[in-house]
Structures
1.
Amino acid sequence: MQLQDRNYQIQGVDVLAIADQFGLPLYVYDADKIIEKIGLLRSSFAGVNLKIKYAAKALTNISILKLMRQQGVEMDSVSVNEARMGMLAGFEPSQIMFTPSGVSFDEIREAIDLGLQLNVDSLSLLEWVGQHYGSSVPVSIRINPHISEGGNIKISTGHADSKFGISILQRPDIRAIVEKYQIAVVGLHIHTGSDFKNADAFLRGADVLFDLASDYPNLKFIDFGSGFKVAYKEGDHITDVADLGRKVSAAFQGFCQQYGRELELWFEPGKFLVSESGHLLVQTNIVKENLTRTFVAVDSGLNHLIRPMMYDAYHDIKNVSNPSGDTKTYTVVGYICETDTFATDRPLPEVRPGDVLSFENAGAYGFSMASNYNARFRPAEVLVYDGAPYLIRQRETFDDLLRGQVDVPVLNSEIIEQQV
Ligand SMILES: *Cc1c(COP(=O)(O)O)cnc(C)c1O
């Protein structure tokens, strides 16, 4: 028996009431959770000149970007379109870091024209920037420090075979290109993946950059990327942000003294800021007893939340409608014609057709990776802010599925007689 003394609430707002008001399936984000995480980062790094650059790809809704801006957070983008959304949300282009990986020179040019802070991910891009812009475009350089630690290989980016960054072993090549074109290097960057458990890996990455910094006397910032591990289930080993803050701050202060100037310390968290804030609310369509398992099929699938299938991610599930039902074991699946399992053999309070379930920790890489696969609508999105729920994205309609499709008249004739 799982007992709850009151209904499931977000900032005092009943989740079932939100479901009633906005319909299902629905992404609901709790602004307070996001603000809490920002505060935790700030207090952990109180001793340094910290800048938080929200990695917008985790959750790209403009209202979320506005919330970040309101909280004094800046932005990291991986495409010019993301940056444009950031500008619509009110960010200055100079507050937006652009960290492309393998994008076209046309897009790089656009980013430079917009005035974004360019983060260079390859020697060939560095050469190109030098050739076309000389010293006029200040760049940050993304280094691959060849550190990898634990985590899922699909989201790990710091190992030697990763496509990301310029190898630290190419340090002389970077320097040669920079000198040849007098490129203004204002930042050094690492982002080594998404699953660091402790401060040590960060510190090893930091040491690599601190050492490299001696090549570049005009730095403004050192950017440690992200990699904060968040809890998806109880007991998960997560990044201890306070501990990280203490250790990295101390190391950074030491470095700044040696460097001779105080630099800015940047982080680019995505998941850490928004994961916990998000809930994907779905409705139970069918409870199906098979020979070996009881399946719960809901009105959602990998088209709305792909993390379980793509990363084997665990998402806690709450039965919002029947929180004190007897515990039974279910395999929770979606409605997509494809294996789309959310959870296997999961104990849940008894699930009945119509029950509303909530997939927890769905704020990061949930909606932003959603698709229209199987010609399904993507969910609506709601932000609970200051105790009130606001619709921040409408539910899609059939017209949304057709938008952009072109009617070709030659295909509109009657059935053509078949050759036998
Ligand atoms: C994706 C990404 C991040 C954010 O990673 P999280 O694991 O969501 O915190 C930060 N920086 C860069 C360059 C990224 O590509």
2.
Amino acid sequence: MNDYVKKDLKYIWHPCAQMKDYEDLKPIVIEKGEGVWLYDIDGNKYLDCISSWWTNTLGHSNKRINEAIKKQIDSIEHVIFANFSNKPAIELAEKLVNITPSKLTKVFFSDNGSSAVEIALKMSFHYNMQKGRDEKRRFVALSDAYHGETLGALSVCDIDEFNMVYKPLLLDTIRVEGPDCYRCKYDCARDACNAECFEVMEKCIIENHDEISAVIVEPMVQGAAGMRMYSPVYLKKLRQICDKYDIHLIADEIAMGFGRTGEMFACNHAQISPDFMCLSKGISAGYMPMSVVMTTDEVYDCFYGDYNERKSFLHSHTYSGNAMGCAIALENLKIFEEDNIIENNREKGELIRKLTMEKAESLKHVGEVRSIGMITAIEIVKDRATKEGYPWQMRVGYEIYKIALSKGLLLRPIGNVLYFIPPYIINEEEIKFMVNTCFQSIEEYFTGNRS
Ligand SMILES: *Cc1c(COP(=O)(O)O)cnc(C)c1O
């Protein structure tokens, strides 16, 4: 065994894993990246279909971003963000206010997605306390939601594997059954969906609005639920009812922001402006930990006044407003504009979708191919007619993942759902390799013929 692998196993506890799995599938040590490709220390290469956990927008070791980092590091790498500021943070804040929905006018910096969610929850609660609405202290979240794994964020998550054990420690969240277009109970036509499923949310809000501080959603796509996509009509209805009952709407765009769904922000599909927008992952092009929470003048103004612990938002993260992260984010957005990234993604997204649909046609184990912008997901089922899935113990996705790795493809399935979320700079040839190799891997899993 390679020395690095040995030491990795000796010293490191990897995230989101049963470490015993590493006995069979050893950690793959990457020493170089270029574009969509990752190169390991044994000379193998892998196409990064998942943008290294949904973060990488413009490819690994992007020349322009590397230059921006080199330039920034020679002026200031990091400076305390309390009472001090830095040029890239200021420029980035202005830029974000200009490109996000109109009501979002203030930017609060943090350093990862979960803390952005914590901040939005705390701000919403704290706002209501200041308004004297002491009973508004609960949050509403959708079934199968994912919002991060610190205790507050985990409280609004609904993924059993992540939540179950910690239940005694979590907030008392109101859980509402979310949209599920693939297994829709409402007989909606997918292309003329009127989000009839919203009735469950409506009922919940009418009954509980006195207690509700905010509703948190992943707009358009519930990522960790298995790239579950839903209609913008749902978001429109949600915005309306939140306005009616003085409830905050928190848009967790941590995964979907920065062009992933084909619009700069997923909320744009519904033309809504949330009260809080959490951004992370794609913000810093997959280079550095970084996040922001954006909010409205109304929320900001409520906290504005003489210093006291009831009025001030006394929350901080050491690396808030990190100058390196902000410089990267600025260059990322500059490239988005200059290279027309979102516009060019339309064709690429469409090609991925088309090739995937063609391949899926003949495979009876593919229940659904769903797609939006630069996401295409493939749900594997036992039986197309009943849509019954495989039990998780079979780890179908994990087995396909291992086969795909041996063919130079980095997938990271969620249960029975395989998906492509590649860096936006992927080219046509790479798209073909990605789709073909993925389907070869699926076929080999089901036929048992390994090539
Ligand atoms: C990844 C993710 C988070 C958590 O972000 P971390 O940086 O991993 O803490 C929260 N919400 C959504 C929708 C995410 O995809």
